[in-house]
Amino acid sequence: MNNNLYNYILGVADNSLILAQRLGELCGHGPTLETDIALTNISLDLLGQTRSYYQYAAKIKGEDATEDSIAFLRLEREYKNVLLVEQPNTHFGFVIARQFLFDVYHYMIMQQLQNSKDLNLAAIANKGIKEVSYHKRFSSDWVKRLGDGTSESNQKIQEAIDALWRFTDELFDILEADQKMINEGVAVDVSKLKAAYYEEVSEVLKEANIQIPESKYFTRGGKKGIHSEHMGYLLADLQYMQRTYPNMTW
Amino acid sequence: MNIESLNIESHLIPTLETVSDPEIPVLTVLDLGVIREAVEKDGIIQIKLTPTYSGCPAMDVISDDLKAAFATIGKEVNVELVLAPAWSTDWISEEGLQKMEEYGIARPLSETADKDVLLGQKKLVKCTNCGSTNTHLVSQFGSTACKALFKCDDCQEPFDYFKCLK
């Protein structure tokens, strides 16, 4: 089994799974019917992409691995998602800020991954990028609407951007195994996306009358499996069925 | 892309036509363009199916429906999910687009026009009830991943618009 490839796929896919789970929590709880449907639609897209990645990863792993065992039976330290996506739905401003900060990044990754030498990954990205472009449009629009809305909405989205900003630097970290995959033309060299990312994010924030945080303090660890305190609770929800009734199917 | 350019054996078409999209029941899987190949090999029907959206929950249902449909003529089916090339709204047949409109879902516009309407810059989507283009976007995300929600400002009818995907 190609361990580097397997780990790389999980690194990309876990972001989508965990964010899908966070958005799924909003099902029936969105602030309006339309945003509720939109957020759960995005959740479904991300979950669909996750399934494609995990199905491929399960094939690489062989043995008894399935998309479900990868999703439900790993321990917290084995999830490789970035810290940003596991942050809670504190209020609507946080939901939108988290989505926006991730979507800009996600879109850039999909763009590059389409050219991967691994044709399976290229196909998933080629399919997914169309969906992600809708996500990015939705979250950018809402950032502008909240930032440029009332003083209260501006204050709330500003608060969320300020709070989540410290998770953005990790997005561009490269692990040793990833570097090998980059060298083989399989993985995306995320370190090269950093400048363009901050430029694009800043442009939208400026348009939305949101101040760009100046803090240089960043938190990292998710990619290495060292998660924030929120992750355990999220997994407890996500894995509840399989942990309570092992091997159950329906 | 039309059905003639795909490797779909003609004797399988009548059965394929009985399977429809669970979310848009007026469209058969052939109208929708999700069947990329259907051939009979050693008595087993091999079907290549492509999803409209990655997370489309209809795919599992369609797979089951295909198996059930061919079971009625005593055939076994093997369904393989393929991702590349990615599905596009261009693959929906003209007949399918007409059926969709009659059903109450506005047809996808061209790529640039689609962007204009989803950004709310132009009024181009035709109301499926009265035909007016005096319509506005309510939400980019509708009842399913492939649709956006619109409302007609003339007859006040809310309706779905099938988003352009290319």
How would you describe the overall organization of this protein?
The complex is a heterodimer of chains A (250) and B (166). Chain A has 250 residues and is mainly α. In chain A, 65% of the residues lie in helices and 0% in strands. Chain A has one domain (3-210, 220-244): Ferritin, CATH 1.20.1260. Chain A has helices at 3-24, 33-61, 67-72, 83-86, 92-113, 119-147, 151-164, 176-183, 194-207, 230-238, 240-244. In chain A, helix 6 (119-147) packs antiparallel against helix 7 (151-164). Chain A starts with a helix and ends in a 6-residue tail after the last helix. Chain B has 166 residues and is of the alpha/beta class. Chain B folds into two domains: 3-91, 2-Layer Sandwich (GMP Synthetase, Chain A, domain 3); 104-162, no CATH class. In chain B, 24% of the residues lie in helices and 23% in strands. Chain B contains five helices and eight strands; from the N terminus they run βααββαβαβαβββ. Chain B has a four-stranded mixed β-sheet with strand order 1-2-3-4. In chain B, strands 5-8-7-6 form a four-stranded mixed β-sheet. Chains A and B meet through helix 2 and helix 6 of A and loops of B.
